[in-house]
UniProtKB/TrEMBL annotation:
GO cellular component terms listed in the entry, alphabetical order: plasma membrane
Keywords of this entry: Cell membrane, Membrane, Transmembrane, Transmembrane helix, Transport
CDD domains per record: TM_PBP2
One BP annotation, GO: transmembrane transport
Domain ABC transmembrane type-1 intervals: 78-262
Compartment(s) of residence: Cell membrane
The keyword Acetylation appears for this protein: no
Transmembrane segments: 86-105, 117-138, 144-164, 209-229, 241-261
Primary location group: membrane
Pfam family name, one: BPD_transp_1
Keyword Transmembrane: yes
Source species, domain of life: Bacteria
Record protein name field: NitT/TauT family transport system permease protein
Length: 271
C-alpha cells in the first residue's frame, strides 16, 4: 500500500513539475531560435538552396558590416538618422501628449476638435511627404515634420484614451477637495494616462523609424534609409541587408529604452 502511495506521489510530483519544465524548455528555445534561423540561412545559402544574389549568407553580411564599422562609414548614416528621429519625435510627442490631456479632460474640446483629427489621422504620412518636401525642402526640416506628424497622432489618441479611462471618482474627489484645473491636470489626469502614454511612445518610436526610412529613400543624401536605397540601386545586397539590420536594431533598442524608463516612472503599470 505504501509502495502504491509512493508511486502515486512521484507521479504527482512529475505532473506538478511538468509545466515549469516546459516553460524552461520553451524559454531556452526562444533564446537560441534566432541563432538557429541564421544557421539555416547560412547553410541554405552555401548549398545554393536559396539564391545568394538576393539572400547572401549571414557570414557575408557580417563581413560587410565589420568593414563598415572599421571604416566608420555606417556611423555617419546612423548619426544622421538618429538626429532626424530624435528631433521629429520630440516635436510630435510633446504637443500630442498635451493636447491629448486637454481633449481627455474636456468633452467640448473633443466634440470640436475630435472630428478634425479623426479625418486627418488615416491619411498616410508618406503620402503627404511630397507636399512637405515642397514646403520645407529636401533638407532635414522636412524629415522632422513628417516624423512629428506621425508621432503626434499616436500620442494624441493614446493619451486621450488614458485620461478618459481615469475613474470618475478620482476626478470627483479632486473637484470636491477644491483642486484647480492645473492640479487635476498634473496630479490626476497625467498619472492615470502614463501607461497609455508610454504605449504610445513605444508605438511612435517604431513608426518613426518606418517613416524616416521612407523619407530618406526620397529626399536625403545620408541616413540609414538613404544607405539602403543607394545599396539597392547598385545591387549591393549585403550592404542593403546591413542597413535593414541596423535600422531594425535602432528601433529595438529605442523601444527597449522606453520600456526601462516606464518601469522606473510608472511602477504601478502592468509590465
Amino acid at each position: 500500500m505504501s509502495l502504491v502511495t509512493a508511486k502515486l506521489t512521484e507521479e504527482q510530483i512529475r505532473e506538478l513539475k511538468a509545466p515549469a519544465q516546459r516553460e524552461r524548455l520553451f524559454r531556452t528555445i526562444s533564446y537560441f531560435s534566432p541563432i538557429l534561423l541564421l544557421l539555416l540561412w547560412e547553410v541554405a545559402s552555401q548549398l545554393n538552396v536559396i539564391d545568394r544574389r538576393f539572400f547572401p549568407p549571414p557570414s557575408a553580411i557580417a563581413g560587410t558590416f565589420w568593414q563598415m564599422i572599421t571604416s566608420f562609414e555606417i556611423f555617419d548614416h546612423i548619426g544622421a538618422t538618429l538626429r532626424r528621429v530624435s528631433v521629429g519625435y520630440v516635436m510630435g510627442a510633446i504637443p500630442g501628449i498635451l493636447l491629448g490631456l486637454v481633449l481627455g479632460l474636456s468633452q467640448p474640446a473633443r466634440r470640436v476638435l475630435g472630428p478634425i483629427f479623426a479625418a486627418l489621422y488615416p491619411v498616410p504620412k508618406i503620402a503627404i511627404l511630397p507636399l512637405i518636401l515642397l514646403i520645407f525642402g529636401v533638407g532635414d526640416p522636412s524629415k522632422f515634420v513628417v516624423i512629428a506628424i506621425g508621432v503626434f497622432f499616436l500620442l494624441l489618441y493614446n493619451t486621450m484614451g488614458g485620461v478618459m479611462q481615469t475613474p470618475q471618482i478620482y476626478l470627483d474627489v479632486a473637484k470636491n477637495a477644491g483642486a484647480t484645473r492645473l492640479q487635476t491636470f498634473f496630479r490626476i489626469a497625467l498619472p492615470s494616462a502614463l501607461p497609455n502614454i508610454f504605449t504610445g511612445l513605444r508605438l511612435a518610436a517604431g513608426s518613426s523609424y518606418i517613416i524616416i526610412a521612407a523619407a530618406e529613400f526620397l529626399g536625403a543624401r545620408s541616413g540609414v534609409g538613404f544607405f539602403i536605397w543607394a545599396s539597392w540601386q547598385t545591387f549591393a545586397v549585403s550592404r542593403m541587408f546591413v542597413g535593414i539590420v541596423v535600422i531594425s536594431a535602432l528601433g529595438y533598442f529605442t523601444i527597449l529604452a522606453l520600456e526601462l524608463i516606464e518601469r522606473k516612472l510608472v511602477p504601478w503599470a502592468k509590465h
